[in-house]
Amino acid sequence: xxxEATGLIERAxxxxxxxxxxTARAQRRLSDSTLxxxxxxxxxxxxxxxxxxxxxxYAVWLSGHRISFYQPSVWVGTQFxxxxxxxxxxxxxxxxxxxxxxxxxxTQMVLALLLASLIKAVSGPMAAVLKTTVxxxxxxxxxxASVVFVFIYQDAGLANWVIGLLGMKPVAWLNDPSTALPAIxxxxxxxxxxxxxxxxxxxxxxxPQSYYESAALDGAGWFRTMRYITIPLLKNVFLFxxxxxxxxxxxxxxxxxxxxxxxxxxxxxxxxxxxxxxxRDGTPYATSFxxxxxxxxxxVLGAISxxxxxxxxxTKAVDG
Amino acid sequence: xxxxxxxxxxxxxxxxxxxxxxxxxxxxxMAMAGFKGRTEVLRTPFQFFPDTWNPHNYSAILxxxxxxRAMTVTFIGAVLFTIGSLFVNSLAAYAFARLDFPFKTFWWxxxxxxxxxxxxxILLTSFQVVTKLHMxxxxxxLVLPGIASSxxxxxxxxxxxxxxxxxxxxxxxxxxxxxxxxxxxxLPQSKAPFVVVGTGSFLAFWxxxxxxxxxxxxxxxxxxxQVLGNFRSDRGNDWGMLMAGSTIAxxxxxxxLLIFQRYIVKxxxxxxMK
Amino acid sequence: MRNRRAGLIAVAAATxxxxxxxxxxxxxxxxxxxxxxxxxxxxxxxxxxQQAWFxxxxxxxxxxxxxxxxxxxxxxxxxxxQKLKAAQAAGNQPDVATTxxxxxxxxxADGEFTQLDGLMPKSDFTDIKPNVRGFVTxxxxxxxYPMLVEPSTVLxxxxxxxxxxxxxxxxxxxxxxxxxAWAKKLTTPKVKGMTIASTAGDLGWSSWxxxxxxxxxxxxxxxWSKGWASSPCYTKLLQFYKDLFQGGLIPQQPKVGYADxxxxxxxxxxxxxxxxxxxGQLKQDFPKMIAKTAVAEFPSWxxxxxxxxxTLGGWTLTLDSKSKNKxxxxxxxxxxxAGDPKIMASFFQASGYSKYTVRASVDKALLSDPKANxxxxxxxISAKIVPYGRHEPGYPWDIAFAMGTAIESAMKNNxxxxxxxxxxxxxxxxxxxxxxxxxTGNGN
Lengths: 320, 274, 444
What we know:
- The complex is a heterotrimer.
- In chain A, 75% of the residues lie in helices and 1% in strands.
- Chain A is an all-alpha fold.
- A two-stranded antiparallel ribbon of chain A has the order 1-2.
- In chain A, a hairpin with a 7-residue loop joins strand 1 and strand 2.
- In chain A, helix 3 (79-85) packs across helix 14 (284-312).
- By secondary structure, chain B is mainly alpha-helical.
- Chain B is 66% helix and 0% strand.
- Chain B is built from 13 helices and no strands.
């Protein structure tokens, strides 16, 4: 098929006059392109409208009520938003979520970058094995990952054995406010860096080899090549990884739910865990409160991503 | 020179192997734990190998019709889901990357906003929607609602945005329309990004738990994570079975990735160079 | 021509899945003619033997008559609320569902349950033991039929380890101070003296009995208009938990939650605070531990054995107020829980006598069961714990969680005991205000 496309180009090139006429025809067709474009986005917009956007609009409307499915729901306006916004635990959970993402996302990106360059450096079967291996953690459910890491953090576990080698005293990783969140971030990184590595690898393979060859001629080492060629060229990929990684990790809740239950004393209570727990009663109050809290989380995630886009000022990435 | 290159190569290969082993350690432990008894898994101090190799869990799962049926049904669903989402999202991604049309920014916002919607926010209302559409207990309710993915569309758009436009212009001049260009030029060039995001879609479907529990009660459509959930309880998990089951459930994805990883060689033009 | 075809193919493919769904849906909807009434029953997932028991008797019920067909479905506990609420929102909630005692009051306030009086024979209700009747009764009407009670806190200890530590296994600790002394003696580098809840989520509910024990009341006044968490009597409760944790007498990083007895079964702790259900788990998974284990009522702060140390948790079946087949659903509840005492007796046998009946007639049926009579744990728990057990509070989880957080803060030195209790009290008062609880209390 690709060959056919090149064939089209070759056939088009010989005569200038015909070409100009064709250009005119092509431009006329541009007005049709509105219809084409709408047809192309129609399946996506349609599906999103039915399964995400309408439910979202409806949820926003519901969140103005004290939701009951047995009695008429009472309209209370912004009352539940007020309850959420004045709840110190909600704000605390947001800080925890952002702190968690701040640990996980950059670590994941750096690890992914290093691994991608390693995969690029080794060739043949080892590269194939690595490409598959880095992705393997992602296929493990977070329940199983949680248990594995709870073991690693036990008093006589692997983590304490390693720091013991460095001459440090054992740490109650999951029960110390200063280590609990990083301790949960570790499986978070482990579960998610595979896809980041594959994306970065695919992007790196796209950088023309000639760039590296000329850099090598100039005597640039690995670090300088990374700093001046690879990283700048991968800017858009990093932006993508950052925004999507951030939105996903802030919403983590399985790991803290199983590993710490949100403790010690709320220090690993991520926003979604907070919401999950506030839904536990299933009363009209709990339903409305958790709904309002999750809609506020939506606003926070959207706003932060918008700021990131604006800061990066990558117009290419934001608008069409 | 050659001997030095050889040394570097050997070193990076050895290093790569070490990394593989580190990454795979928890997975290997999970597979080993599948050979352990129900409660032996949680015993301290940490033990990698089982006391006695007990293949009971694995054989029980391989002979469990419900488990194997769930694997099959989930696999079919995941394949449909992946193909559907790659098609729907790449089509929209192409339009956003390559075409100009009125209210483009508006539609872009419409398509990208869902990325930030927490599942909890639309849990009740999206369930109401699928109930009204009489979709409960069908393959459709598992596959259709998640097909349109902002994240995937965003990624593919970045890719198409950086695809050289000269090829497209030439094709246009030659009388090809946008559909042909998308189907004949863009799709064939999308193998690498499709593998990257397709694996993500496959996995998202494979690992989904809450949505199937909400929408599926028919045992013929029960999903693999629902079956694994049966080994869990807050009054004592059946760890041996959970680990054996998780190991077997992880295999299809790993095999698929082994097959498709070779397409990730070149061509994800999201980096922005021509 | 070719252009057009390509476009058409693309559009066709894009709508293919949608078309598929419509077809599949219309096919799935066919059926449902006249015949027996179908009712749905959702059971929250518990221990495996419970699912087996429910399945057996649902099948038996369906076979026993031809008017009602029960469709039985097990829902995982971790998504129970989500699934139930989503179903209620969409109007396809089950006719009959498992409901815990603690959720009855709130459900009745929201109008979720059907009053069972009139739908079930009167004798069904007179059979319920008097101390449990109140658990399912609101303003004189029954809104749920109780199935079982389980004391939330029982003390389990290893006779062999106790003896080895020079203590007398026939005289278990009766005060908190003695318990701590035992835990200290039993703690070795490899075995912790004790295990008890240590995260706010678990503490929130598992400490209710000890909250009653320390103060005689829960941290909110009887009509739920005011927080009572800063009562000085709670100081000793927080101190007790704090001593256990700070003294290194309980696991510092527990692998499982309070309700799971695995660490005790694996020999990692010498004593355990856990609900009576742990007996079932030990019998099932750690049969070798049974001979080494003794149970006792959990110590009271001052040694008074009549003070509550455990709430009686447990499960009931409720009938949805929007059910279209109330009489049929009630006949199922009657069959399963209130009819032939042998059916429920078989449940308690299957549980390894780790749960306790709420019906006088089932007690009688169990009397003729030699195994039940011989069971050493059952006697102690039914004679020394169940009679003093109190009702689980029906107040919102937020209040329970605030108290759980206070205990956890004290345990982990996050705050002083006084300030932890003050924070909890503020939080409880806030909950009272936002949820409009004042005056809605049921006397807890």
